[in-house]
Amino acid sequence: MDFARQVKGSVDIVDTIGEFVRLKKQGSQRFVGLCPFHTEKTPSFSVHAGLQIYKCFGCGQSGDVFNFLMELQGLTFYEALQTLADRQGIPMPRGNAGSDADSMLRDTLLRMHETAQAFFQERLPANVGARAREYLRSRGLSKETAAQFGIGYAPGGNALLGLLRKKGFREEALEASGLVGKAEDRPDFYDRFRERLTFPIHNETGRVIAFGGRAMQAERQPKYLNSPETAIYKKNAVLYNLGRARAAMRQENRVVLVEGYMDVIGVCKAGVANAVATCGTALTPQQVRALRRHVDTVTVNFDSDEAGRNAAERSIEMLLREGVNVRVLELPDGKDPDDFCAAHGGEEYKKRLEHAPRHFIWLTDRTRLRFDTATSEGRVAAFEHMLPTINLLPDDIRRAAAASELADRLGVARSLVLERLRRSGDRRGPASPAGSDSDGFSAAERLLLHLFAGSAEARGALLGDALALATENGMAGREALAAMAAVHEDGGEFQYSAVEGRLAERDRDRLAKLVFDKDRALASLDEGKEALEALRRQNRQRRYRAVRNAIAEAEQSGDRAAALELLRDKIDLERKLGMSAAAGR
Fold first, then answer.
1. What percent of the chain has pLDDT over 90?
2. pLDDT value of residue 548
3. Domain-embedded: residue 96
4. Structural domain boundaries enclosing 25
5. Does a structural domain hold residue 364?
């Protein structure tokens, strides 16, 4: 068996995609969720358990489990194959014939980061890590917590560089890794992380792809140093602790978004496992979409200083644009989450999380501090300031409810606020109609196409006849039937992804809509035979009409020989259609 087919056959696409996208069952074989490849507020992304494929009817992305990992994580086919093989415990064949330069580089960088992570963790309990261990104790972090999050220590000098060279990593890999730097005035490399506490940053599959480093000396700047972007690390798409937090996020359908590594560790240590942080950047749309794949609600808990409040306000707008429910937790006395949990304990932090106000209330309170709401002018200005945020809400009912609540909190007449909201909505323009173009298939074609996609027995018994009829009649499903027949004749396991690969985009989309129909159960072989007979009858009726027209033309032109020949065809068709001679005249 082909190795890729062996790996693919051992993997359930629903389980694999379900690690990255919350899927809900709709029908016996169909699961739906929010598409990870584009922004959407209602699910258009479907996974078919029987056919082991996915399809987004919003952006058009589709394929099998390999395509999914390649598109989501930017992998080559070889890397996706290796990832799935490793997870299934299937050893890869010897040699890297399937790999290319890019995938080989990424594999090298991942191995370098594994080496660096082991090195940093080994240094932490050594004599050289004494200052780092004292810092962790001062922050209330035990050995167990440090080990749980993979915290390590990067010593001074260029010890990591020496280790990487000793292990045979070449100069071009060193330069591409982000683990070492190269000074403009010196030809040699140096360790990027020196005399710093290290926090490994993982991708969603748990591989170390970057580091954050906290300086152990007050005079060393910057206080936090992060890995640069590399072939395996795109900081605007990665969230710290997401892989570890996913299970808790899904269980609670909520995530706590904080600002730093220590905040994540502090609240997790206090018993809140669903916490993540950005990696030294402002929140990005890619990071929001990563959250949206797992939860509906985000509680923003940034630092309580003005910089943290401004960052929270910017994040709220981005989260709302992606259709996320947002709450905001602002802790007292300017404390960050880690300090608050250390001072007041996990139970108090959890209690405040549960009572965190909706983003709208928090923003309104912020707005009231900016404007003089004791005056009518100030109240109007406050409402105008809040209006763009209200318009980011996903539907008319929520916008109207928020506007009414804002009117009450600002002391403005509800009728005026709702009218102003209506006018601003008119300027947004009408929503584009979803539309539902017909796929052009007859009822019999739909039944057969769906049956052939899911039944080897039906393909063997009926597919050839169905294709012949479709080709003769120019039926809408002829291209899909031809692709199925070609894959079937190739032998081996029938793979729907191979059918898709033979189709033009229009036919691919039409067939996908059919096979992902949640209300369509797989027909029996007998029902398939009945559908095929219906197509035969339609073909005969079409030919019968054509023969009648041809007889009329022959008689009109005086061609009696042609008319007699056509009459014999007409009588034969009438017999097959079960028509009486009188009915056929």
1. 52
2. 73
3. no
4. 3-88
5. no
In the prediction, which pLDDT does 435 show? 34
Tokens (6 digits) for 204: 């969603």
d(CA 393, CA 499): 41
And the tokens for 297?
């609600």
Q: In sequence order, which residues have a C-beta less than 8 Å from that of residue 436 and are 6 or more positions away? A: none
pLDDT at 554: 67
Q: What pLDDT, on a 0 to 100 scale, did the predictor assign at position 471?
A: 87
134 and 37 share a domain?
A: no
Of the candidates 287, 295, 241, 293, the one whose C-alpha atom is nearest the C-alpha of residue 268 is: 241
DSSP 173-211: HHHHHSSEEE-TT-SSEEESS-SEEEEEEE-TTS-EEEE
Pairing of strands 30-33, 45-48: antiparallel
Residue 295 lies in a domain: yes
| Same structural domain, 451 and 584 | yes
Q: Under a CB-based contact definition with an 8 Å cutoff, are residues 152 and 120 in contact? A: yes
Mean pLDDT, 10 residues at a time, over the chain (585 residues)? 83 94 89 91 92 92 93 88 89 67 90 98 97 95 96 96 96 95 82 97 93 92 94 94 94 95 96 93 90 94 91 93 92 92 95 95 91 89 89 83 88 85 64 46 88 90 90 86 90 83 88 80 85 81 70 73 70 62 44
- For 317-339, give one letter per residue: b (16+ CB within 10 A) or e: ebbbebbbbbbbbbbeeebbbbb
Which of 209, 233, 257 is the last residue before a domain boundary?
A: 233
CA 226 to chain centre: 26
Report how many domains make up the chain: 5
366 part of a folded domain: no
* 259 and 174 in a common domain: no
- Calpha distance 61→251 (Å, rounded): 28
By the 8 A CB rule, do 81 and 97 touch?
A: no
CB atoms within 10 A of CB 27: 16
What is the token pair recorded at 301?
Answer: 């808990």
